[in-house]
Design brief:
alpha/beta, 6-stranded mixed sheet, globular, binds beta-D-glucopyranose
């Protein structure tokens, strides 16, 4: 199809040249490009020459020349693999826009997803491979607290998008970690909207620097997988504005993503893709968004309502959807102007897309360079949770005994559309070998044989998923290998340190569970930790645990038994090498948690109403915890987590000093916060510095603390100091007053808390706001009709 289109455009060019019509610039005789003269009326167009899409200025004339059927075709996508509608030239791409050759509109192609481009690595009848880079999961990227690193990941992802002939990446995803058991949390950044929004903006800016589009998704409040197509999410306007919408607002304003994907769920009673208050009033009105909106795949119930609401494109689309839309225009139930608006929003990106520009993609991105980016990001996102008596880094001469099946079956990322068909995943065992460590070989062999044997068995065979081959594989979890105590003692005698790897995976379509083998460790895993720790400690040796997981697991009950815990997350294809970088000290860990690890699941503020009611088959979920999500809850209600938001250790130490604000502590539209950070340890390292604000209660109650800014130092050498500055403006510190639809900074004394984590505050400063500041008035929208019994401190 693409080739055909290219030929057609070339033909048009030659016809144009022969007839003296320029296909670019503003002198197209038909008046197509008459931007300066205003859009031509249909009757003014020379009927002999069909207007062609040549640039932005030609869009209005092209729309004027489109039939209703053509418009209805363009707003419905193409291409779910395996379906009867056209197969896409980029195998594994999940959709795109149809070509309308008569008008010079080329097809465009879309592919997932958040951890990198997801296309098929092989194509029938070809020996060439089309592997892409599996980057660390979003939760790991957020844990870097480093927008520069994340921007580089975006640049590399966008380059693969472009070089493999795709126009739009269906990522990043930034739903909040409302509940730790959400199956797709690995695709999302954080429980906090500021870090989610900033990370998204950094990624989008990187991806789009290549001239391709990024899609921020899933808009909005798509915070569970259970009944994701039908669940009705009931949430207050304030929680929506301050939390669930906030990251999207930041991303829209700071990175102008070309596309937004509306979500599956209903929002306060209306499917998100049919919700005009969400897609038109808030997104386009309040935020001035000027890209286009597509549905999530097969979302919503009514294509005409989707069009009306401002959901510009239906994905992946059925021909019947186009028919219904065209008929609705004809019978007057859909205003053609609304359809034109949607078509225009799509064409605005079409004219910028690589397909439109006939970009000659190489099918050959620099995968080696991207692997380096992935490895650095992975190591930077790892969080050192515990390191008693400097058990880590490993010493070069250490002989390491590796325990746990995930040392071999290392998990690079979650499953579903967030998976990536990478050429390889470096396992943790291979990572340590590459780093030159001598491993306990018999133990490695034993694990390797155990895994191979089990994987032969029918119940543990890796099968293509029911979603289709490219949608991630269904990987049955194999049970942890049982180790006898005497066996552990022998291995201990033949090694210097025990390193235990615990792995978990989750994916699209199902939420995780508070059960053994998922949130909880299994009995075998617990026995392994206990017995290995005892054997090594009895001999005066150390034990470290590496967590290869996509979201929190229960840690509090076993952490005292081990010396060190490294949270490696699901670090992408370079997993093992990146783990080795941190274990060996080649990279000093500087990651910090962007999501809280609770002591127990019941401590999670939404645990009582997740995933909704009725329990056996939820249809509705009411966000009763309201604005108290994540650390906003733990800090306000004094619930001690296992590891708090913002927490993470280093192999060095940092001293915070001279924490202050300017302007004599008077807030005047903005205020600047300063902090000196000094490396007081013996090795170089980077520190993620967090600025929380405690706002005074006024008419609106406030959480104990809220993250309002963050930054990361450069790599500081021992004794080196860096001065970090953070600017806070009125919108940054405002709260949302839903009675008045205003963002407001209430008067009073605000305390700035600069810290190494949400609990480890190293210095405070205060500033005063003399009178209430109304920062912004927005539309009165998204008011729930259902009464919410909201959590409050009163
Ligand atoms: C997911 C989206 C994804 C789409 C296309 C849907 O099931 O929710 O995130 O982009 O499929 O693969």
């Amino acid at each position: 199809m693409l080739k055909k289109m290219r030929k057609r455009r070339r033909q048009l060019t030659s016809i144009a040249l022969a007839t003296g019509i320029a296909l670019s610039g503003l002198n197209f005789q038909t008046g197509v490009l008459a931007a300066e003269q205003g859009a031509p009326k249909t009757e003014q167009i020379n009927q002999n020459v069909v207007p062609q899409l040549v640039d932005k200025a030609s869009i209005d004339a092209v729309i004027a020349a489109m039939t209703v059927e053509e418009k209805a075709k363009l707003v419905v996508g193409v291409g779910m693999p395996g379906m009867t509608i056209p197969k896409l030239p980029v195998q594994g791409a999940v959709g795109g826009t149809p070509a309308i050759e008569r008008l010079g509109i080329p097809a465009m192609y879309y592919a997932d997803g958040p951890a990198g481009l997801r296309i098929s690595p092989t194509r029938p009848g070809e020996s060439k491979t089309y592997y892409t880079t599996a980057f660390p999961i979003a939760t790991s990227l957020a844990s870097t607290w480093d927008t520069n690193v994340v921007n580089k990941v975006g640049q590399a992802q966008g380059n693969e998008v472009k070089e493999y002939g795709v126009d739009v990446l269906l990522a990043p995803a930034l739903n909040l970690h409302r509940n730790i058991l959400t199956g797709r949390n690995f695709e999302y950044f954080s429980e906090d909207p500021l870090i989610s929004g900033k990370m998204t903006a950094a990624l989008v800016n990187g991806v789009q620097s290549n001239g391709v589009g990024a899609t921020i998704k899933h808009f909005v409040a798509n915070n569970q997988e259970t009944n994701r197509f039908t669940i009705d999410t009931i949430v207050s306007e304030r929680a929506l504005r301050e939390l669930y919408l906030k990251g999207f607002e930041i991303a829209v304003k700071e990175s102008h993503p070309k596309a937004v994907m509306s979500s599956y769920n209903l929002l306060n009673g209306t499917p998100a893709s049919q919700n005009s208050e969400l897609l038109t009033t808030v997104l386009r009105g309040d935020w001035r968004y000027d890209g286009y909106v597509m549905t999530d795949w097969f979302a919503g119930t009514d294509p005409v309502a989707q069009m009306r609401a401002g959901n510009d494109q239906i994905m992946p689309g059925f021909p019947q959807s186009s028919e219904r839309i065209a008929n609705a225009v004809k019978d007057g139930s859909l205003d053609e102007k609304l359809l034109d608006r949607n078509v225009k929003n799509i064409l605005n990106f079409v004219v910028e897309s690589p397909s439109f520009k006939n970009y000659n993609h190489s099918d050959n991105p620099d995968l080696q360079a991207h692997a380096k980016v992935a490895r650095q990001a992975a190591a930077d996102g790892m969080v050192l949770l515990k390191n008693d008596q400097k058990a880590l880094p490993l010493k070069k001469e250490n002989k390491v005994a590796l325990f746990g099946t995930a040392q071999i079956e290392t998990v690079k990322g979650g499953t579903g559309s967030g998976d990536v068909n990478a050429a390889y995943t470096v396992s943790i065992v291979d990572g340590l070998k590459h780093a030159g460590y001598s491993l306990h070989k018999d133990l490695v062999n034993q694990y390797s044989n155990y895994i191979s044997e089990l994987r032969q068995m029918e119940q543990y065979k890796i099968k293509p998923s029911p979603w289709g081959e490219d949608f991630g594989k269904e990987i049955p979890v194999i049970p942890e290998m049982v180790l006898e105590t005497n066996q552990i003692e022998t291995i201990e005698g033949e090694s210097d340190i025990g390193v235990i790897v615990i792995g978990r995976n989750s994916g699209e379509g199902v939420d995780r569970q508070n059960v053994k083998g998922d949130y909880l460790l299994t009995d075998t895993e617990k026995a392994m930790i206990q017995n290995v720790s005892k054997a090594y400690h009895d001999a005066g040796k150390k034990v470290a645990v590496v967590l290869n997981i996509g979201g929190p697991v229960e840690i509090a009950s076993w952490r005292d038994q081990v010396d060190s815990i490294l949270l490696a997350w699901q670090p992408g294809q370079e997993a093992g090498d990146a783990v080795a970088d941190v274990l060996t000290g080649a990279v000093n860990p500087s990651g910090k948690l962007a999501t809280t690890f609770p002591v127990k699941y019941e401590d999670v503020p939404s645990s009582e109403n997740f995933p909704g009611t009725p329990a056996e088959n939820p249809t509705q979920v009411v966000y009763e915890e309201d604005i108290y999500v994540g650390y906003r809850y733990y800090s306000t209600f004094d619930v001690k987590p296992a590891y708090e938001f913002g927490y993470g250790l280093s192999y060095t130490n940092f001293d915070y000093s001279n924490i202050r604000v300017n302007q004599g502590g008077k807030f005047k539209d903005q205020i600047t916060v300063f902090a000196n950070i000094k490396n007081t340890g013996k090795v170089s390292g980077k520190e993620a510095v967090q600025v929380y604000v405690s706002a005074p209660d006024g008419k609106l109650e406030k959480p104990e603390i809220e993250l309002k800014a963050f930054g990361k130092t450069k790599e500081l050498k021992p004794n080196q100091t860096e001065l970090l500055k953070f600017e806070l403006n009125a919108k940054d510190i405002a709260s949302f007053d839903e009675e008045k639809n205003q963002w407001i900074v209430e008067k009073g004394v605000y305390t700035v808390k600069v810290g190494a984590s949400s609990e480890n505050i190293n210095g405070k400063a205060t500033f005063k706001v003399d009178k209430d500041i109304i920062v912004e008035e927005v539309s009165n929208s998204l008011v729930p009709e259902v009464e919410i019994d909201r959590l409050t401190k009163k």
